[in-house]
Amino acid sequence: MPIENFDKLHKLHQEWKKDLLLSEKEIKSLQEELGELAKQPLERDQQVKVEHFQNALIRQKDVVNEQLQLVIKGDKMMSEANGEDAELQMLHNKLQEDMDIFDRLFVELREEFKTFKRSLP
Length: 121
Fold this sequence. Notes:
Layout: H1 6-38, H2 44-79, H3 85-119
């Protein structure tokens, strides 16, 4: 299936890059906040939760970097005159699905973190 509107696709990729970079900043902020929480005296189950969030945020940062690389790859493919439309469409579909999943999981993680913070004394 041919890609009919490269400009629209490019604009969407730019939005994704912007969103991913904002997520990266938010991850860094959450990591700093978590570091401050970890300095408090915590019960064992709270320490386990802190470690869970540390690992989850590291993974989210990795996902952001992976997604950014895929978006950049898509942009490069679009800029090449001989780019395969079918290959680009497949990459775009994968990116769309991955971005939807990332957004959903990141929102869930943020909410879980907020709930955890409220549970602390």
